[in-house]
Amino acid sequence: MSSPLPSPAAPPRERADACPGALQTHAAADGGLARVRVPGGTLTAAQLRTLAAAARELGDGHLELTSRGNLQLRALPDGAEVALGSRLAGAGLLPSATHERVRNVLASTLTGRTDGGHVDVRPWVRAFDAGLSGDPGLAALPGRFLATLDDGRGDVAGLGGDVGLLALSSGSVALTLGGADSGLRTHPDRAVALALAAARAFLDERTAQGSTAWR
């Protein structure tokens, strides 16, 4: 199939980074709002039960699904993030307290499950998340920084990820930056390393410019 390439990138965004996490909640009108990152949108049944219990016992009983495939709990009392963090860590949903807000990863929804993609990007999700959480420097990424991992069917490549991988064939992957094609190509086996290098380059360039841009 022909893989659609993203449109030109949007301009840098300089607003302050106040994006909530599971440990750094947002004070909303109904109480604390916590956002739990779910890289690739994949949860086990046990993890979902942990989240449902946390929402019921710590918040208002509801789980909200965000446009980036993450989950939100609302109406949390002051200090509830401590108990929430403990529950998430026990369920494998908080592998790194320092990196928890930067694990924003969207992946092709049906990858590896149906025909239509060039590669199964589920291994990319796991490798990118592990590489992200394992690099101390990448904890400085903004909480809005988004990675898109597209198997070639084009369902997430057009969503404007700050760093993205788009499979063009079973042997070629395009790197996208700010939602636009960078022109760089690599093999699927080297794609995650390239995406992580691009994330580091973003931080290096932001530092060089003395900027607070989050994309």
From TrEMBL:
Pfam families: NIR_SIR_ferr. Gene3D superfamilies: Sulfite Reductase Hemoprotein, domain 1 (3.30.413.10), Sulfite Reductase Hemoprotein,Domain 2 (3.90.480.10). GO terms for molecular function: 4 iron, 4 sulfur cluster binding; metal ion binding; oxidoreductase activity. It comes from the Bacteria. Signal peptide: none annotated. The keyword Iron applies. Keywords: 4Fe-4S, Heme, Iron, Iron-sulfur, Metal-binding, Oxidoreductase. Residues 33-78 form the Nitrite/Sulfite reductase ferredoxin-like domain. The keyword Metal-binding applies. PANTHER family: BLR3264 PROTEIN (PTHR32439:SF9), FERREDOXIN--NITRITE REDUCTASE, CHLOROPLASTIC (PTHR32439). This is Precorrin-3B synthase. It comes from Modestobacter versicolor. The lineage of its organism: Bacteria, Bacillati, Actinomycetota, Actinomycetes, Geodermatophilales.
